[in-house]
């Protein structure tokens, strides 16, 4: 089934124009949806706008938008006044610049759309744009009036087509400094860093979205199915309380490296390293053994 286009227009680069369409790439339509019901009658509940002071329902024709300028004071804006200032769409994705893909900050990403040609005659021009961007490893910055608003769009090659991602404006993205300002700069090295790198290596994988399961949606589906079948609802078991352990111990347990004992550390340090001591985990083990062995040596001399 051919998807329904959200927008149709032209992708324009200088004097080159190619008829294209945007299709939704991410949708929430498959999520389970609940209606609000009257518990007593089982009927659906309708929402109404009511006057905050009088409590009376306000008819749609009497509802108007307002911008608050003070406590209880508003500037009223009529629908025709809003329509007059909305930019008129020329149905054009006008490319303003090409940027290196490595320079793109994805914190500005908003919503993705698939971008595809709409006619057979457009396919050659479309392929030329796609392959040119792919060869130069660049993305296009374009502007367009989408859904009654001027939007900045990032266009990248994506398989046989292009993907167009609407971007948040700079004022919409909060400064990272506000979130990270209180984080101290801590240098890590030695055994702790070796263990961290080893854990990362053992957990290395590939990006496969099919492996990401929506457990909340699955739980809701099972809940509704159980109620339809008259089965008892199984309450989720509480997670066992975790005991507090220090960072180094947590790293050792995650890497499968036990805390070295005084006796075993001294005994192993006197012999040759086994094949199990190779790699980041082995290096971390070796460091711990050397430290334990040195501490034991100092104690013997002190005695």
From TrEMBL:
Keywords: DNA damage, DNA recombination, DNA repair, DNA-binding. The keyword DNA repair applies. Residues 55-185 form the Ku domain. InterPro entries: DNA_bd_Ku70/Ku80, Prok_Ku, SPOC-like_C_dom_sf. With LigD forms a non-homologous end joining (NHEJ) DNA repair enzyme, which repairs dsDNA breaks with reduced fidelity. Binds linear dsDNA with 5'- and 3'- overhangs but not closed circular dsDNA nor ssDNA. Recruits and stimulates the ligase activity of LigD. Homodimer. Interacts with LigD. This is Non-homologous end joining protein Ku. It comes from Microvirga alba. The gene is ku.
């Amino acid at each position: 089934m051919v998807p329904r286009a959200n927008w149709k227009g032209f992708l324009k680069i200088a004097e080159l124009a190619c008829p294209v369409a945007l299709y939704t790439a991410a949708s929430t339509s498959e999520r389970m949806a609940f209606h609000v019901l009257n518990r007593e009658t089982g009927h659906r509940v309708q929402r109404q706008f009511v006057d905050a002071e009088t409590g009376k329902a306000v008819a749609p024709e009497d509802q108007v938008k307002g911008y608050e300028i003070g406590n209880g004071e508003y500037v009223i804006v009529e629908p025709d006044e809003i329509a007059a200032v909305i930019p008129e769409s020329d149905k054009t994705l006008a490319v303003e610049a090409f940027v290196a893909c490595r320079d793109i900050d994805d914190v500005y990403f908003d919503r993705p759309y698939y971008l595809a040609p709409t006619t057979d005659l457009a396919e050659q021009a479309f392929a030329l744009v796609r392959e040119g961007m792919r060869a130069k490893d660049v993305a296009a910055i374009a502007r367009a009036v989408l859904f009654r608003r001027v939007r900045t769009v990032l266009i990248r090659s994506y398989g046989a087509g292009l993907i167009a991602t609407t971007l948040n404006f700079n004022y919409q993205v909060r400064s990272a400094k506000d979130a990270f300002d209180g984080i101290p700069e801590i240098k890590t090295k030695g055994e702790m860093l070796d263990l961290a790198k080893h854990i990362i290596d053992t957990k290395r994988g590939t990006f496969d979205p099919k492996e990401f399961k929506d457990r909340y949606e699955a739980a809701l589906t099972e809940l509704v199915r159980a109620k339809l079948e008259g089965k008892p609802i199984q309450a989720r078991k509480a997670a066992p309380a975790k005991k507090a352990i220090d960072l180094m111990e947590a790293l050792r347990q995650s890497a499968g490296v036990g805390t070295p004992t005084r006796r075993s550390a001294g005994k192993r340090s006197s012999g040759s390293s086994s094949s199990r001591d190779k790699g980041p985990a082995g290096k971390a083990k070796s460091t711990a053994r050397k430290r334990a062995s040195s501490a034991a040596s100092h104690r013997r001399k002190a005695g």
